[in-house]
Predict the 3D structure of the following.
Amino acid sequence: MAESAKLALAQLRSAANFEWYIIPIVIIVFYVYSVEVEKKNWNVLFAGLAFWGVDVFNEIWNGLVFHFTQFAPVWGTPTKSAFEIFIGLNIEISLMFLVAGIACAKMLPKDKKAKILGIPNRLFLAVLNSILFVIVECVLNHIGVLTWEYWWWQAKFPYVLFLIGYMPFLVACYWVHDMETVKKKIIAVGTIFGVDALSIVIFSCILKWI
């Protein structure tokens, strides 16, 4: 087992490292979403939730990779956290992604057909934001707070991080944002959350794999 995986596993779902700073961050996240509810800005609200839901799904299969290899997850978070949810996801990252999805959705022009540098704006922003997220990940890996143990998931293969790590988040975010009715948005986000919840119940609560 990789040393980074041992460190991450040691604090998995332990409250021993709890810090009070997490409480005001949670309140800030609630405030961000309450603003969108107040404005009835359902496009942005559900887009943000879709973004976060896809991230949770990624963290579930990442935990399964560790379970079946018993070597390391594809990415790990071994440094101190107020609460580590999965072996590659801590509470700080999860709250960050809840807000990041809202921010990415707010960047979208109202005109779906508008182009940026000759490229459809949804595609342009999905690619741009995915690249920015990958750059941040590379920095976090470089300073040792986000670990990568597999040769194919490294900064020298950024396209893998781009295609698997972040592009799906942005695609889901913008796809849900542009759905024509609130009902369709609810069904889409509900399906994403349903898959996440079922997976957590099976792989974490019952099988204890992640």
Observations:
- The two ends are 15 Å apart (CA to CA).
- The chain has a mean pLDDT of 96.
